[in-house]
Amino acid sequence: QLQLVESGGGLVQPGGSLRLSCAASGFTLDYYAIGWFRQAPGKEREGVSCITSSDGSAYYADSVKGRFTISRDNAKNTVYLQMHSLKPEDTAVYYCAAIPPVTTAQAMCVMTLDQRTTYWGQGTQVTVSS
Hints:
Layout: E1 3-7, E2 10-12, E3 18-25, E4 33-39, E5 46-51, E6 58-60, E7 68-73, E8 78-83, E9 92-99, H1 105-110, E10 119-120, E11 124-128
Parallel strand pairs: 2-11
Antiparallel strand pairs: 1-3, 3-8, 4-5, 4-9, 5-6, 7-8, 9-10, 9-11
């Protein structure tokens, strides 16, 4: 069975840090571009950060630039999202997604993904609150 499983979410105080993991089973991630998306209640899904499969170049939404870092460990078949200086507005369910190779990481994060060729995880809740 092909699936992505996110972990690492939780409750954290403003200014704190979390590291999200996205582990694949049933397929290898190194072929795929990977993205982290989030959706807060009442808001549209937002592409937070994406990374290519070819050269590992990354894209970050302006709202997280300088605070979040995406990385991939192909040996562990896992992609990470390290989040620092968390803010209440980062509160959302975070999802990882895998798609066939794209030209740029930004393309994955901003375009409408083809659901026929996209793998999605089940999501992990991140809550930033004091």
